[in-house]
Amino acid sequence: MRNRLSEKVAIAGVGCTRFGNMLEAPELKGKSIQEIAADAAREALEDAHITAQDIDAVYVGNAMVHSSQTPATQTQIAKWIGAQFKAGMHFEAQCSTTNVGAALAAQAIASGVYDRVLVIGVETTRTRVKGYSPYEREAIPAQQTWLWTDMAVNQAYSVPQGYDIFSTYNGLLALGYCRKYGISVDDFDRGMFELCRTRRLHGSMNPKANEQETLEQVATRYGFDDAWEFWRSPENPFCAWPSRVRSLVTTADGASAMVLARAGDAKAMNPQPVELKGFGICHSDLPWYTDDPTFWKFDKIATDQAFAMAGITAADLDYVHTHDCSHISGICTAEMMGYLEAGKGLQAACEGRLRFDGDRPMSTHGGRHAFGHAWAASAGSDTYEAVLQMRGKAGKRQMPKRPEIAAIHTHGYAMVGTTIVLGAM
Amino acid sequence: MCAQATQRVEARAPAAEAKSYVEQYYDALRDGRFLAHKCRKCGRYTFPPTTCCEHCGSWDFEAAYLSGRGMLLYASHGIAPPPHPRFAGIAPYVYGQIMLDEGVAVQAIVRGVEATPQALRAIFERGPLPVNACVMSMTDLPVLAFELA
Ligand SMILES: [Zn+2]
Q: Residue B28: its chain A contacts at CB < 8 A?
């Protein structure tokens, strides 16, 4: 593998909807899936000061066709965004979809085939088509969402024999982390509390986040004066001991989009483009780890490739998002990357270093727990946040010093380890 | 065995040699055997069996049965009701990370341990612990599980 782009590629525009429930969130309520995809696409196109007539291809990601019921998604979205008679595809890499789409777009652009590509991710994990209605939606029972989601996991042997995402992605990993670094289960719990507090703080400052209450506000709503007491209460049960439910993803409907082009072309469209300096993609079936649950080989391979393509090291990173469907998994990945010191990630969370105004800022949009998770749209929401931070446009959660280099890592269930490196231009 | 199969799933045509590796695995499991493929090129096991050595990519392998002995490294639990309806009757159940004697990493249901913080903390503090594979007979499928040795 030569692992290089033959031409510089940049993101010229980004878009992202509110993440939430299409039956409840005011920004999504009453809309169709076509319309939320169009909202994200329009924001990205207008950010790049173009229309879809000016692009060559549209890549539309959607992972859970069971709820969207729109395969060949790019053709079904085209009329809603002015992209008729273009090239494109429907694709998915589960929760890495949008950033894998950015990598595919970069390959197409750097090879000289296309000049401009629009990547869209759209997903509905909270709501589905109601009956045969073209516009009515209904809630999806949580078990149904997980059953559909687990269709991305080993269907011959793992899922039929009781594969459990909560243990595999949380509890076993947490215990591996505690044993490896000599951390007590109680100190682990405190670290998870502080990490949740940080992510929810970020979500509270983000009008597009699924969860916009701070952890303290949630505790008050449940009648607790002390958020730590609330954290350890039956209102925050173990989903996979020693991990609790508020260390997990929250599900959402939503869409994200980005416009990619050659760096010079992007600069002509937008005064603040962001270079896609590198990417790495590496997949694995279960098991994701062997005797050390904190080390996931495919993430290491993906990250090494992305850093090599970008010509950076961990010391260059100013901002990082790692996939945090499971908060402890996100910490392990950031430590593997070298952004956090091995075994010290939870301590860093307790010291406030992972906050937007800390020295190791992470997931300033709120991450999968507070910003929420709309599978195929989520990686785009992470990139959207990084671009806002690099432009100095992240509002109340803006990092004091704009990041120059950022890394975004995502887990496409299960698993597509994906890391992209972004650079200010 | 942690439970005996009460009835065989009805035999299907075509004949045995036309069975998928998936069906062969579950058939073996029903009989209390843990079917793997052993690579003739690199000597490593692919468990459960697939069409190719997952380590070196060789298509040249032979059937082999694993001992079912190993070490339980970590044990946690899932939620109730569980994502998969097959396990609704036993959720929340304990799920563990096991390293088999043959060097194969396996994740599976762990029987005989309560899905409570107290019981799991005790397992964590004592671990790693030796375990043996067993077979749980769900109504429609035999399932690999482990019990403390
Ligand atoms: Zn081999």
A: none
How big is the A-B interface in CB pairs under 8 Å?
120
Other CB atoms closer than 10 Å to residue A311's CB: what's the count?
12
Q: Among 3.30.70.260, 3.40.630.30, 3.40.47.10, 1.10.4080.10, what is the CATH number of A9-154+250-263?
A: 3.40.47.10
The alpha carbon of residue B49 is apart from the nearest alpha carbon of chain A, in Å, by 9
pTM of the full structure? 0.96
Structure tokens at A185: 């289960």
State which residue of chain A sits closest to B144, comparing Cα positions: A161
Structural contact between residues A43 and A257, judged by C-beta atoms closer than 8 angstroms: yes
Nearest beta carbon to residue B117 from set A150, A167, A241: A241
Q: B43 alpha carbon to ligand 1 midpoint, in Å?
A: 6
Contacts of A341 (CB under 8 A, 6+ apart): A335, A348
Give the number of other Cβ atoms within 10 Å of residue A72's Cβ: 11
With CB atoms and an 8 Å threshold, state whether A167 touches B77. Answer: yes
User: How large is the ipTM?
Assistant: 0.95
- The pLDDT tens digits along chain B (149 residues) read 564 433 344 444 555 568 999 999 999 999 999 999 999 999 999 999 999 999 999 999 999 999 999 999 999 999 999 999 999 999 999 999 999 999 999 999 999 999 999 999 999 999 999 999 999 999 999 999 999 99
* Residue B134 domain boundaries: 67-149
Q: How far from each other are the two terminal CA atoms of chain A, in whole angstroms?
A: 27
Domain of B110: which CATH number? 2.40.50
Record: contact A161-B97, CB cut-off 8 A = no
Q: Do A240 and B143 touch (CB under 8 A)?
A: no
